[in-house]
Amino acid sequence: MKLLVAFITSVLVLLSPAHADGNKSFEVTGSVWLVKTSGTWELNNEYGYYRVVVTREGNEHARDEVYIQILNNSFEHKRTIKLETPGYQGYIKNVSFNNISDNKMAISFEIEMKGMYEITQKEVFIITPKGKVEKVIATKPLDL
User: Fold this and answer.
1) Cis ω on the peptide bond leading into residue 86 (within 30° of 0)?
2) Going edge to edge, which strands form the sheet with 90-101?
3) CA dihedral over 104, 105, 106, 112, signed as positive or negative
4) Of 42-51, 55-64, 70-79, minimum mean pLDDT range
5) Half-sphere exposure for 60 (CA within 13 Å, toward CB)
6) Beta strands of the chain (E only): which ranges?
7) The pairing of beta strand 90-101 with beta strand 77-87
8) How far is CA 142 from CA 33, 90, 112, in A?
9) Which of 48, 53, 57, 104 could lock 30 by a disulfide, CB 3.0 to 4.6 Å apart?
10) What is the pLDDT of residues 81-138, one digit of tens each?
């Protein structure tokens, strides 16, 4: 039952308009593959949470897309950012969160590389409540 409620909530959230920088909106494509909400932020007497939404599009040559949603304490959107990871390199296997401070969160993505079953790499991003994102660890192309 909890899974069904989480899925329905995720779909409704994804269908609502969201803005990366207050001006640009995006359209979520593909099927919701993974949703995780964790971590907290605090800025100017406001606080809230971070949510990662991973969508998967296609079958044989599937592509994952990653969105980070910054939510207030009522789980309303403050902003949404689309990350350029992992693209066609692989599939998101897991997501983890690590608070660095009240206004910085490290979000790690475990990426299973395509065509290399069980070989995974990690990408790490630092994000702030204002939506500033910095990639601090990137995956490296593998030629096996």
Assistant:
1) yes
2) 90-101, 104-113, 120-127, 133-137
3) negative
4) 55-64
5) 0
6) 31-43, 46-57, 63-72, 77-87, 90-101, 104-113, 120-127, 133-137
7) unpaired
8) 25, 11, 12
9) 57
10) 999 888 767 889 999 999 998 889 999 999 988 777 778 889 999 999 999 999 999 8
- pLDDT attached to residue 99: 92
Are 28 and 14 in contact by the 8 Å Cβ rule? The answer is yes
Average pLDDT of 29-34?
82
**Residue carrying structure tokens 């490296």:** 140
Checking if the pLDDT of 9 tops 70, the result is no
> Which residue is it, tokens 């790490």?
124
Q: What is the mean pLDDT of the chain?
A: 79
Which residues face 71 on adjacent strands?
A: 49, 77
**pLDDT number for residue 28:** 59
Those residues whose C-beta lies under 8 Å from the C-beta of residue 61, and which sit 6 or more positions away, are 88
Q: Residue holding tokens 């066609």?
A: 88
* C-alpha dist (Å) from residue 29 to 58, 67, 97: 10, 11, 24
Pair 92, 64: CB distance under 8 Å: yes
